[in-house]
Amino acid sequence: MASNELDMFIQTWEHEANNTERLLTALPTTQYDFRPDPKGRSLGELAWHLAEIDAFISQGVATG
User: What pLDDT is stored for residue 40 in this prediction?
Assistant: First the structure.
């Protein structure tokens, strides 16, 4: 991957991570069960899923 592409990826990742953190910080804990779509995951479930992805990837890197 070219350095330019890597830099663009990192900038995009950080931008999206900051927006996600702002949303989750602003969300009252009483609203974690809110479902934008009745068939979809709640906001709390989506937040947990994001944490699981990071943990899964980190474990994969650590264990090879």
Answer: 93
Identify the three-state secondary structure at position 38: coil
CA angle 55, 27, 53 (to 5 degrees): 15
Q: Is 1 helix (H, G, I), strand (E, B) or coil?
A: coil
DSSP one-letter code for 28: -
How many whole angstroms separate alpha carbon 27 and alpha carbon 57?
26
Side chain identity, residue 44 = G
Q: Is 4 helix (H, G, I), strand (E, B) or coil?
A: helix
Residue 33 DSSP code = T
What are the pLDDT digits (tens) for 3-57?
789 899 999 989 998 998 898 888 888 988 988 899 999 988 988 888 888 888 8
